[in-house]
Input
Amino acid sequence: MEQVLALRTGASLEASTGSCTFCGSERVVYFRRYSGERLCARCFNRSMVDRVRRTISKYNLLRPWDRIAVAVSGGKDSLSLLKILSEIERDYPRASLVAITIDEGIPVYREEAIRHAETYAEKLGIELRRLSFKELYGFTLTEAVESGAMEKMGLKPCTVCGVLRRKAITLAARRVGATVVATAHTLDDIVQTYLLNVFRGDASMAPVGLRREGEGVVPRVAPFRLTPEREVVFYAYLNKIPFQAEACPYASQAMRDPIRRFLTSYEETYPGALYAALNTLEKLIQAKPQPQHPCPTCGEPTTRPICRACEIEEAIKRHMRR
Output
């Protein structure tokens, strides 16, 4: 297990030499290749919390009085974010934290994830609310896939899941009275999203994971946007946060999968490349806010005649009825 974690997180043999950059301890467990820092377990954990604090401050992601809904999938990233935000939130008595989880209806995979989410939220003493695709849309993702509806529509499961899950998170956040949603998107996720939008030919890109207010909008923020995925993995390992044994059966069909593999390999060869990519891409982005109006079907803000979630939901139901 330790060898696998070393390969995935960069906690290489170089970590075993020298002393901790911050406290001088010789019990070094992690080597940050892009910065040259060596860290003991205590300083690594502290650096993760401090980086999230700095990210929140730099981008003004959260307010001292926010009710924060943390989107918890049950995976290591979201549970790590829940733990770190629970530590930070203690310093802000006017703020409050609640976990929300969405059940898309993927047997075994989602069932395991929800167990992890419920158990860990209870361990942290944080309320968790659960909402399902079946409850909201009348069908599960698996039912939609097995019906052949997505194939007829020319859509991949991850595309449909992403759109419907995003809406479900917003609706869950409204139900718990949240003023903001915090997601566990990492530095890797943010850069992947930008490149994916480029390859899709999306000219209307906006910064990902930054707080954007608007009429009827529940803003979303990504406190891990400056944190590499490999460091979240190592944080979860150090803090005994549960890892999922089951993989999503549809993950290999995701459009971002080849981009994810490329960026992981590139960062391994050229440490710090993800930070450089983020800085460059966000300098190039020229967001052009588009006027929004309530979706005539569900009332959620949209720039389209009907929001994409309602469009997909109705199309799936139509195909499933045939």
In short: Residues 42-321 form a domain with the Rossmann fold fold (CATH 3.40.50.620).
